[in-house]
Amino acid sequence: MVSSFSSIFDQNYWNSAKANIYAKTSADVENALKRTVRTLHDFQALISPAAAPYLEEMAQLSNTITAKRFGKTIQMFIPMYLSNECQNICTYCGFSQNIDIPRKTLNDHEILNEVAVIKSLGYDHILLVTGEANQTVGVKYFQNALKLLRPHFSHISLEVQPLDQEDYELLTPFGLNTVLVYQETYNEAEYKTHHPKGKKSNFFYRLETPDRLGKAGVHKIGLGALIGLEDWRTDSFFTALHLDYLEKTYWKSKYSVSFPRLRPCAGGIDLKSNMTDKELVQLICAYRIFNEEVELSLSTRESESFRNNAIKLGITNLSADSKTNPGGYANTEDSLEQFEICDERSGSTMAQVISAQGYEPVWKDWDSVLQ
Amino acid sequence: MELLHIADKTFSSRLFTGTGKFGSNRIMEEALLATGTELVTVALKRVDLDKEDDDILTHLNHAHINLLPNTSGVRTANEAILASQLAREALQTNWIKLEIHPDPKFLLPDPIETLKAAEELVKLGFVVLPYCHADPVLCKRLEEVGTAAVMPLGSPIGSNRGLDMEPMLTIIIQQANVPVVIDAGIGAPSHAAKAMELGADAVLVNTAIAVSEDPTTMGKAFKMAVEAGRMAFEARLGKTSSKAEASSPLTSFLDQ
Predict the structure, then answer these.
(1) Catalytic annotation on B97?
(2) Does A270 reside within a domain?
């Protein structure tokens, strides 16, 4: 038995995976669409340029498969930024250490102010976000935040720096249900150029984070690659490879995949791989056709019209009302944000859009008594 | 049609339903009314117990509808017991649909944890309806610890594949001293009718109704199918035979 994803990662090479994807033909795509149980080879075909002419067929299939598993429902969540302190340099991020912005970490009082606003908006599932500042925003800080938040929310997710297995084990008793950790890119050679400084520059520590989460028994693990850093098709293949390994190894955990497309931020870099809306639809549908059970999440980075139409394409989770600066809900001044929000509509407006399409917006789908 | 008795309750409808996956709670209510169902399972995780006017529960507030809270989401017997106690307190019913599926991908029930939890919950005074594999021995073991029924799966949940487990379900039905409710995989009215013809006491249907283009009409179709299947069972189906009638009898010499 393999002990971590690294050993599987080491057997797959970026360049050959990329070559395989770009060599896929329409016959490969047609075969992938026909099958009832699909493999990673089928996924490669579905994300390849050869699949572009099959987009409508893929969308129809994705819609049907998603309804069968998830029904006509969309789960709603909201992010809450606890801190923008960060010791990493990430070339694409507005919180990067080298960027001169005022740094802020919420105290108890400020957290509860945010809670009051967020609860008034109707949310019951929350995603806590920070940069990486282990001294001030570490396990103790997270335990305290969870303790403050648990009475108010049924489902709490974390998107923070990767931690050790023992750390995660210290957080689950406080109500931590889900952890999102995006690899950003699986291109090991280029990873360092995007993450030149800080703990985050350790590629393999980040790569093995989902293993540590699985071993710690965390209920749900979120994966993703940052679209725009490197070739998105190849990064998506490695994300799917990662997902496939994790599902078989940590079979008691649930999984979700996100599709963060890079947006303008304070750091501002040129994107190597620009993804069109059509390609994002192709990727969403490819994931769904490849894996009928994985949750697919879409943030407010995307436009109103894209999000309206994504409801029927295979997406299962949507955020709304998002503020990406610490304290952004209680304080209306827009500063220090991690990235610019594209869809600024409220959750209640989003819920109307969802209902109008015959779908039910779901605000509560977990209960702290269950863990 | 004979009435169905489970624990302290009597049902004239043998179609149990779920509440997930509908496009809205209003659509759910209309569809469930069309099914004539008298027992509706609700996931504890979906209900907001702090809210007096929880939207799901409000739409299920009909005199003939009994609530059957379920423990979906738990991974162990201990978690299931805690969740059941909360459900009993909040929803004022000691009926519980015991679901323990530690595997969130295929949602297959854990037989070991389910048996452990069932035994404990019966001792705590619950009416336990366990979702379980189509395993005849497991169903007998659940019956022995005092469950009020057994709810074996027809095929993987949400698969719409029908009664893939038919040979095992036949044995379970033949052996059972408690009602047998076929719980998962029923994707078409014909599957439900088949289950009833086999002698199942009831079926539980969710996805096939919720995800159909017209849930209300589909709900009605399931109602009719369950009734037809049950009536056929009670009227006793003729034996089917693919054997040819022998043209030269082998035992006729005995009469000569």
Answers:
(1) yes
(2) yes
What is the pTM (predicted TM-score) of this model? Answer: 0.89
- Cβ-defined contact of B158 to A73 (cutoff 8 Å): no
The per-type count for chain A, helices as H runs and strands as E runs, is 15, 9
Token reading at B195: 């289950």
Does residue A289 form part of some domain? no
A72 touching B (Cβ < 8 Å) = yes
The whole-number pLDDT of residue B187 equals 95
Q: Nearest CA of chain B to the CA of A352: how many Å?
A: 12
Give chain A positions within 8 Å (CB) of B59: none
Q: Is the dihedral of CA B228, B229, B232, B233 positive or negative?
A: negative
How far is it, in rounded angstroms, from Cα B15 to Cα A232? 48
H helices within B92-250, ranges in order? 111-123, 136-144, 166-175, 189-198, 207-210, 215-234
> Nearest 5°: phi and psi at A344?
-100, 10
Q: Looking at the 3D structure of chain A, how many domains does it have?
A: 1
**d(CA B17, nearest CA chain A) in Å:** 15
Place of tokens 């407006």: A349
At A67, the pLDDT band (50, 70, 90 cuts) reads very high
Show residues of chain A in contact with B57, CB under 8 Å.
Answer: none
pLDDT mean over A121-139: 95
Between CA B23 and CA A361 the distance in angstroms is 9
Tell me if residue B218 falls in helix, strand or coil: helix
Nearest CA in chain B to A153: B48
Catalytic residue from among B51, B97, B140, B223: B97
Domain hosting A213: range is 5-21+73-276+295-365
A365 to B25: CB separation less than 8 angstroms, yes or no? no
**Cα of A268 to nearest chain B Cα, Å:** 39
Contact check, Cβ <8 Å, B104/A253: yes
Query: Domain with A263 in it: what CATH number?
Result: 3.20.20.70
pLDDT at A334: 57
For A:211-250, CB contacts with B below 8 A are: 220, 247
- Neighbour-count burial for A189-199, b at 16+ CB within 10 Å, e otherwise: eebeebbeebe
Residue A361's beta-bridge partner residues?
A74
**Which residues of chain B neighbour A369 with C-beta distances below 8 Å?**
44, 82-83, 86
Is A39 inside any structural domain? no
Residue A105 located in a structural domain: yes
- Predicted confidence (pLDDT) per residue in B7-47, tens digit: 999 999 999 999 999 999 999 999 999 999 999 999 999 98
| Chain B closest-CA separation from residue A66 CA (Å) | 10
Give me the sign of the Cα torsion angle B231, B233, B234, B238.
Answer: positive
Please state, in angstroms and as integers, the Cα–Cα distance from residue B204 to each residue in B100, B157, B175, following that order: 17, 11, 20
pLDDT digits (tens, 9 = 90+) for B167-205: 999 999 999 999 999 999 999 999 999 999 999 999 999
B20:A124 CB<8 A: no
**Domains by residue range for chain B, with CATH:** 10-235 (3.20.20.70)
